[in-house]
# Entry
Amino acid sequence: MITSSASSFAIVLLLAQTAFAGEVNGTLSSRLDFYPDHADGTASEGRSAELKIDAFRDFDESRIVGEFIFRGDKKDSGRRIIEARQAYFRSPFAGFDVFFGNRQEFWGKAESKNVVDVINQSDAAANDGKSGKLGAPSISAERYLDIGDLQLWYIYSFREKTFNDSDAHPSSGVPVSSAEYARKDDKDADDFAARLSSFAGDWDLAGSIFYGTARDPILSVSSDGNALNPYYALQKSIGFEAQYTGNVTLLKWESLHGTQSSLIGAHDFVAAVAGIEYTYYGPFKTTWDIGLIGEIQHDDRPQAAANQFGVAGVRLVFNDIADSNILFLTSVDRKTDQSFVYLEASRRINDFTSVKLTSQFYNARTATSAFGQLSDDDAFNVKLNMFF
# Structure
């Protein structure tokens, strides 16, 4: 069996030998987190540093690519990681571009949640939104056809989701135990996926299939109540994506339909997000763009925080030389009376430095709801990035 560590190590060695003739860029980040409502015995603040190295080298029609993350955290061991998020070799073969190694790929159209994004595992402990992903140890191929872009994926090793320490944030307050798998080969079970994307007029369209281990585990409390037990189900699914791009309006749709195993048997599921984003360009005689976001989420899988969320938000882009922007999103589950608020703002300070501020707030009427268990995980954080 090919292992992710072996392939990554080989590519790291090759990068080390050839980087002087390619291109290498780095980002050094320092992050401070504050938890104003932290429970007794949990962290009141956090400090971490991260080094990211991006490199590539071309060999005629082939390319080798690396993206390496080194992250340390003063208190939370769950956030500490050394990760080859991307470490792959790309080369043309039989009309395809073939990729071998750790690779990241994003699928989806919606802003608040991407149910069709099934390739990469989430680096949840990073608490860094959509960008917090782990590399997928894989062999993949892409080809541009007359009808669109075809992708084929074989993922030969599964990556478990990362979790924060039980006294860190966000966390349920109890440790996460060793994972159980529906598939007998556990982490070594093979995953397969394919996607065809195309366009028709103002519409971007895509369809995908997936057979493999579900990326999000089903979490259950152990019999003694002292741990969370993650169970990774077998998932068979079909995904659909559509986006209409008008002058000022984006219409978005993505859905996932299939079956998923559980400890008591397989069941069918549907997960979908439908949304609209309307943008005002240059309001009040400014250079700003103001985008109004509205989405509805439905997800009947047990991993979901709720069956349905309504989402509203505002995106403010200043179109200035500092690339300043603000994103505000709020998600509300009216059935169980729980909500989540997220705010993000970023700005370049100069050519080699930027700053990003984020905050998140959980609210729930009942302590047993998904967000009720995160009642002490409200957070403010500031991240300083330095590029070299």
Q: What stands out?
A: Confidence is low (pLDDT under 50) at residues 1-7. The longest strand covers residues 45-59. The CA atoms of residues 32 and 47 lie 5 Å apart. The domain at 4-387 is CATH 2.40.160.10 (Porin).
